[in-house]
């Protein structure tokens, strides 16, 4: 697994996000360089079945994600998924998916640089996200594993609620928009900072 | 303490006095006061003069329905057009009365405004008796509940009366209800929050006042609710009679609120004029607070027995079967004249009784606050019993409760709220238990007499009978509208401006319908009301804008190399949401000097540009070639793997809408580029055709714009620079020919390198994953340093491509330009059966020979740079208008290699006119210019291989 060197989209905002975070209330940070591969394949078919075998988990249905070993698979559309893994996995994942498609119509594209991941965790995270996102993020409606493509702070974003005892969200944001999202986050989280008491 | 402020009672804190200034005079009030209650406590009734007639006007209501008491807040922050009845008193507050119109502050608003999205099962609007029982019932069922009320504290009408629930003061029950709601984790209480809009599918918008010292002063809530309960209460309606607008005339319920909520009495000798029961409570309560009640004038023939005995035992004079016909007083009412007016008589009798008073309380009945219900497309009907419009027919998942639904008593409000809350919970699939309700022991209410206006013996036209005090609209104005032939309430509203002020007719709307009814001799139900529209109360634009201002106004997109450009001091050009470096000034260079230098460097040495913003789309699938043949004008299926072709896209009308390059990656895979600003639109356009018109094509599109950072190296020495950091790559013109691509290693990273050129010079474009962008850029800059590598921005790129006659879509085209107009017929395939736009090229209009065509323009004065957009005309002198326009300048620059100004222009039949002299506007003169070919430099393409 190759360690990626270079500059992630939010490298220049690492400190800002750290300062923005409020321990015990809201934690915001970038998870850089994750492998992201777009998979397009007809959902009902032999190729999709082979992909599921390869991944070790069925392709998740609308609005959900699936854990497949050390990979995460997000439903992005009726015939589109995003396979997410640790950094440097793109060539393996691409190769495995191509092999699973076995010449059947589909598409596999490395888009690891297209988006970066921002993790938002803590009891305030739902409210914080709802400052810029109109989705209902209550656990009864957007529970662990749920994902959606939406707008956050007027920026295209893919939102995923991870499994965990406290709320943890991943925001997959286009690399060119990532700084805007970070700057918006610092502004939106300011009220939870200094002296703010968790209700 | 002033004689108008009671020693005890009310919900103010007498231990926390607040100083404030009104119209330059200093006064004192208390924590918990509104500006209006504090003014009344100081004996101040007149707040302003009226907008048209300049008459003195005072405080009339105790809430959002106030038509008169408009103030300009000067401190803490200037805000126009606030109603004194809704301004919370604060220490140091400064305000002045407004004659109808305020002024915006000249300084920026220092406060913070933001917004929040929220979802719930049940949204309860209003936290009076009905709202609280609705919220409690829904909350007990386990529903996610939001309950919002405009007031600073919950309780609604209960806070402004002396009512008792289960034998205890009503606020004890309110406190218990709030405490219980507090215990439910899924209940959100929003005091100080006005729900001001109800839109489709139960999307409601509210404004929360969080306090002057809060981190966020106001917050806009955008709420999506499965079920909505409108417990919005009701507004008391005034009566129309001659001189009904003087300061000192208040709504009876408002006087009761001032007494019980703020410990304030409005005067020393109070007359009451009513058509229903509710005003008696005000008379009795004020009497008990030590105020002299001059008389209670009731338009009904008799006084209801319970009120008759309560008044008689207090010695209050009762005048049933009477009406106030006129008032007098200079700055404040000092007398009313009362005449007998029995229910079946058209007009009051001629005999007048004069009654001295300093205050007149009026009540013409109560209008349910149906605004939000009506905004949600709920129906209304006129209830003869209530003399008001009430909900009649509910949209799905919306219901009203309490006095908003026309319930007359507290007991009925409590019950209807609980019922609405339960039904809302059940609609959400929950189980609601019957609620255990407190008892108010309300006395039965007798029907009012529906009185819209009292005919006046002295004012037969109605010039002093005010229907809308905020707009100074009178009965005479309504008469004039009807005289002009209008019958619809909507027309009369617009003609008279009735109900169009800040209060949107909360006191005048129904009254206006009633007055029209009487003047037309129709029924009120038939006349109806005007349309209720959001916002329910005024909302500041600052609140609606929220945080979307300044740097957060619109998302800014940057490339991976952005910070390098910033460090070099480059100004940026906005291209869509992207920031692109415009030019890189050195020392004292202005833009022109910097661009000339950058252009010179590319033409004679080597330049480097960040072109990461170009849109990139991965096209995959067995039918990819066929698909691209359909969407581009030229043929892409014949492109060999490893090669690149320029492509034009047209809309179905044959007009150019985007361009870019197409690289064939393998048999079934292409990588196409789009313009920076057009990327999203192109992807959407392609998906649209693929999904709706050609679903049989097996093709997938994936945006990879930001996966890649892309760097252009241009100039005769670009190969040399690249070779220093890509030693393993064959770069000579045979090994790496023009319009081809290959993968390789650049500065130690895997890269895809294209040999394409937008300047005519030998050039390469290097793409690496986003996170290596800056590193590879810096490696190229370092490698090029000995060769004088020069970073260049969008301006230089524009000049260089214009010298080569290459158009920029969106600058040299405007949606009316075909490839042929651009002189790019070579890019339109003659061999393909079909492609988007093809059929349009056979239209007579696209085949015209006098279409505007892209040509070059050289001003006669070589130092002149024509203005982009300058009109092109035939002659040096303008003929009489209309002046025939030949076209306009689309691009214009100073060229380093041409050593002169030059331009591209769209000119009628331009290609047939090469060599002709035409004229272009330059400020207020016309200058001569020669039409030339649109390619100015290196026509033969000798420079592209270096």
From TrEMBL, chain A:
<protein>
    <submittedName>
        <fullName>Sarcosine oxidase subunit gamma</fullName>
    </submittedName>
</protein>
<dbReference type="InterPro" id="IPR027266">
    <property type="entry name" value="TrmE/GcvT-like"/>
</dbReference>
<dbReference type="InterPro" id="IPR007375">
    <property type="entry name" value="SoxG"/>
</dbReference>
<dbReference type="Pfam" id="PF04268">
    <property type="entry name" value="SoxG"/>
</dbReference>
């Amino acid at each position: 697994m190759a360690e990626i060197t270079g500059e992630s989209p939010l490298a220049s905002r690492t400190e800002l996000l750290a300062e923005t975070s409020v321990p015990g209330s809201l934690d915001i940070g970038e998870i850089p360089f994750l492998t992201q591969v777009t998979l397009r394949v007809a959902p009902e078919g032999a190729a999709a079945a082979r992909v599921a075998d390869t991944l070790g988990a069925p392709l998740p249905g609308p609005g959900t994600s699936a854990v497949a070993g050390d990979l995460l698979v997000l439903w992005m559309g009726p015939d589109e998924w995003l396979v997410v893994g640790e950094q440097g996995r793109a060539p393996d994942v691409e190769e495995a998916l191509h092999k699973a498609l076995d010449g059947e119509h589909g598409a596999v594209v490395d888009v690891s640089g297209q988006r970066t991941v921002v993790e938002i965790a803590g009891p305030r995270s739902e409210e914080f996200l709802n400052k810029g996102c109109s989705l209902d993020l209550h656990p009864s409606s957007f529970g662990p594993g749920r994902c959606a493509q939406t707008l956050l702070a007027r920026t295209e974003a893919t939102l995923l609620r991870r499994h965990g005892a406290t709320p943890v969200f991943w925001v997959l944001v286009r690399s060119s928009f990532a700084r805007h999202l970070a700057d918006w986050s610092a502004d939106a989280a300011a009220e939870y900072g200094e002296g703010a008491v968790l209700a | 303490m002033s004689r108008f402020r009671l020693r005890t009672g009310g919900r103010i804190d007498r231990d926390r006095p607040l100083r404030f200034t009104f119209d330059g005079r200093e006064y004192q009030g208390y924590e918990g006061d509104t500006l209006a209650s504090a003014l009344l406590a100081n004996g101040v009734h007149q707040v302003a003069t009226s907008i048209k007639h300049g008459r003195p006007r005072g405080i009339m209501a105790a809430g959002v329905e106030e038509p008169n008491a408009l103030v300009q807040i000067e401190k803490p922050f200037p805000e126009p057009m606030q109603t004194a009845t809704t301004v919370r008193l604060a220490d140091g507050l400064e305000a002045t009365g407004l004659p109808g119109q305020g002024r915006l502050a000249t300084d920026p608003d220092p406060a913070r405004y933001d917004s929040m999205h929220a979802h719930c099962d049940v949204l309860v609007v209003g936290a009076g008796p009905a709202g609280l029982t609705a919220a409690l019932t829904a909350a007990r069922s386990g529903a996610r509940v939001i309950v919002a009320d405009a007031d600073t504290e919950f309780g609604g009408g209960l806070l402004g009366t002396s009512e008792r629930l289960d034998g205890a003061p009503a606020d004890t029950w309110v406190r218990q209800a709030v405490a219980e709601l507090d215990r439910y984790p899924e209940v959100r209480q929003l005091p100080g929050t006005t729900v001001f809009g109800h839109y489709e599918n139960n999307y409601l918008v509210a404004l929360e006042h969080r306090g002057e010292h809060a981190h966020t002063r106001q917050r806009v809530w955008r709420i999506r609710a499965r079920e909505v309960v409108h417990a919005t209460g009701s507004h008391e309606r005034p009566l129309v009679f001659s001189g009904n607008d003087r300061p000192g005339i208040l709504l009876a319920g408002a006087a009761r609120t001032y007494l019980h909520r703020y410990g304030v009495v409005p005067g020393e000798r109070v007359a009451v004029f009513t058509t229903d029961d509710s005003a008696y409570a005000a008379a009795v309560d004020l009497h008990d607070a030590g105020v002299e009640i001059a008389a209670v004038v009731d338009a009904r023939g008799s006084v209801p027995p319970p009120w008759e005995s309560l008044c008689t035992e207090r010695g209050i004079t009762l005048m049933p079967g009477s009406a106030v016909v006129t008032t007098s007083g200079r700055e404040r009412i000092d007398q009313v004249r009362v005449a007998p007016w029995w229910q079946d008589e058209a007009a009051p009798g001629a005999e007048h009784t004069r009654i001295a008073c300093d205050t007149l309380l009026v009540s013409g009945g109560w209008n349910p606050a149906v605004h939000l219900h009506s905004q949600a497309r709920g129906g209304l009907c006129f209830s003869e019993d209530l003399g008001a419009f009430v909900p009649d027919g509910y949209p799905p998942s919306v219901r009203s409760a309490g006095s908003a639904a026309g319930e007359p008593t507290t007991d009925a409000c409590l019950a209807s709220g609980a019922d609405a809350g339960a039904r809302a919970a059940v609609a959400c699939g929950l189980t609601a238990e019957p609620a255990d309700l407190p008892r108010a022991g309300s006395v039965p209410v007798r029907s009012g007499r529906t009185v819209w206006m009292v005919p006046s013996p002295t004012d037969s036209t109605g010039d002093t009978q005010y229907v809308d005090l905020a707009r100074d609209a009178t009965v005479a104005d309504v008469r004039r509208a009807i005289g002009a032939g209008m019958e619809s309430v909507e027309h009369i509203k617009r003609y008279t401006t009735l109900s169009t002020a800040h209060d949107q007719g909360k006191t005048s709307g129904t009254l206006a319908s009633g007055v029209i009814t009487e003047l037309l001799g129709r029924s009120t139900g038939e006349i109806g009301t005007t349309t209720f529209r959001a916002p329910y109360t005024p909302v500041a634009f600052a609140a609606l804008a929220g945080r979307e201002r300044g740097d957060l106004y619109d998302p800014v997109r940057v490339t991976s190399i952005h910070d390098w450009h910033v460090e070099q001091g480059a100004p940026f050009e906005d291209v869509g949401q992207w920031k692109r470096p415009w030019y890189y000034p050195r020392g004292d260079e202005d833009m022109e000097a910097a661009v000339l230098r950058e252009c010179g460097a590319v033409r004679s040495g080597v330049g480097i540009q960040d072109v990461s913003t170009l849109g990139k789309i991965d096209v995959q699938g067995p039918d990819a070639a066929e698909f691209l043949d359909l969407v581009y004008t030229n043929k892409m299926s014949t492109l060999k793997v490893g090669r690149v072709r320029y492509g034009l896209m047209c809309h179905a009308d044959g007009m150019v809408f985007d361009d870019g390059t197409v690289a064939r990656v393998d048999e079934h895979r292409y990588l196409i580029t789009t313009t920076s600003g057009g990327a999203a639109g192109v992807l959407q356009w392609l998906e649209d055709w693929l999904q709706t018109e050609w679903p049989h094509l097996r093709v997938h599109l994936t945006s990879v714009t930001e996966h890649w950072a892309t760097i252009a190296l241009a100039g005769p020495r670009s190969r040399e620079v690249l070779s220093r950091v890509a030693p393993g790559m064959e770069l000579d013109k045979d090994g790496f020919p023009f319009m081809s691509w290959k993968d390789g290693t650049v500065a130690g990273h895997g890269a895809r390198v294209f040999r394409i050129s937008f300047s005519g010079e030998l050039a390469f474009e290097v793409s690496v994953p986003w996170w290596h962008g800056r590193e590879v850029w810096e490696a190229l800059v370092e490698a090029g340093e000995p060769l004088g590598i020069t970073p260049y921005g969008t301006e230089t790129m524009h000049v260089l491509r214009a010298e080569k006659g290459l158009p920029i879509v969106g600058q040299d085209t405007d949606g009316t330009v075909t490839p042929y107009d651009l002189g790019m017929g070579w890019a339109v395939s003659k061999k393909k059966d079909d492609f988007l736009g093809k059929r349009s090229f056979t239209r007579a209009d696209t085949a015209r020979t006098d279409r505007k065509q892209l040509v070059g323009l050289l001003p006669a004065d070589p130092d002149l740079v024509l203005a982009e957009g300058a009109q092109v005309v035939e002659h040096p002198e303008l003929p009489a208008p209309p002046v025939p326009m030949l076209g306009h300048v689309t691009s214009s620059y100073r060229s380093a290699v041409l050593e002169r100004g030059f331009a591209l222009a769209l000119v009628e039949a331009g290609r047939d006119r090469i060599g002709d002299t035409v004229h272009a506007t330059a400020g207020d003169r016309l200058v001569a210019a020669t039409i030339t070919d649109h390619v100015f430099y290196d026509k033969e393409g000798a420079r592209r291989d270096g």
